[in-house]
Amino acid sequence: MTKWSFLTNHAQVLLCIAHDPGVRLRDIATTVGITERSAYGIVTDLSAAGYVVKGKDADGRRNRYEIQTHLPLPEPIGQERTIGEVLNVLVDSKTTKAARRTRG
Predict the structure, then answer these.
(1) Which of 7, 32, 71, 72 can bridge 79 by disulfide, Cβ–Cβ 3.0-4.6 Å?
(2) Choice between 38 and 80, residue whose per-residue pLDDT is larger
(3) Residue 55 in 3-state DSSP?
């Protein structure tokens, strides 16, 4: 049987970031089952599309990511929904609330 995934790698990377906005690329790669280079490419894609804003933590040593939850899904079939609405379904609400508090 062919192995397949319900969520794309891009969606899985977004979930990793939603769980931990300070997640390292190495940890994203391990969680998703891709190379670190692929994880970097996906984060770059998401940043270029405006879905993720990359910055530094308070110490300036590690990347922190902020998901732009107000943006619509990129597919025409789902554009009436926002990234945040989808993430709320897929991520524990306590986790997303904690992520929002760390941004503010």
Answers:
(1) 72
(2) 38
(3) strand
